[in-house]
Amino acid sequence: MLCVKCNRFEGEVNVSGKLLCVQCARDEIVKRVRRELSSTGFLEKNDRVLIAYPTFYGNVAALIKDIVSRICKGCNLTIDEVKVEPKGDINETLWTLFKEVFDLNYKKVILPLTADFFLSYLIYSISSLNHGFLSYYDLVTEFRGVKFFIPLFSTPLQELKGFSEITGELNTKDEVLDEILKWSHKEFQDNEIFHTFVNSLTIFSGKRCKICGAYVRPNEEYCQYCLRLSSQKR
To answer: From which domain of life does this come (predicted)?
Structure first.
């Protein structure tokens, strides 16, 4: 079947329900990131911004850095990176990532996380009764004076397959989450749920850890990881 956009090349990648050729799929993603940057006004000229990610998102991080650099070619941006190794527990991995971010003192941070990751993490969080870092899932959030931007917050990894460097797989080293990811990729292939489930996250909003920003219970001030770190320092 031909690409529904250019009607010239074979359709290979499904983006927002449209079967596109590789080139049109790439163009669609670049336009989406450009639109998100424009609508949020996240970046300004001469900004110093940090791309922060677990190593299993290395390819996507490199792609986002390239796209942002091209979109903002005349902005004189400084784009730095920080990455963390997965810990076998996704909440500890994310906690380590956000700890690094706050330790580095950047005011603007790009998280190259995708919608399929957050959908799977949502299911994971419900099953574990720990809503953790769902607190950061939105196009733009702010905590402790730091703005976080997730350009692919409504884009699943499958829609990035037009870029040869993207494999379409994530290995978080958390066995439970990895199984949920595999299941969601199988069950929700080419499904609009990745673009709409964010609306359901409002039911999880609540109190946040004063240090890392993770969701905590109403009677708590800090998450278990920040509490553990604090006790180790005593």
So the answer is: Archaea
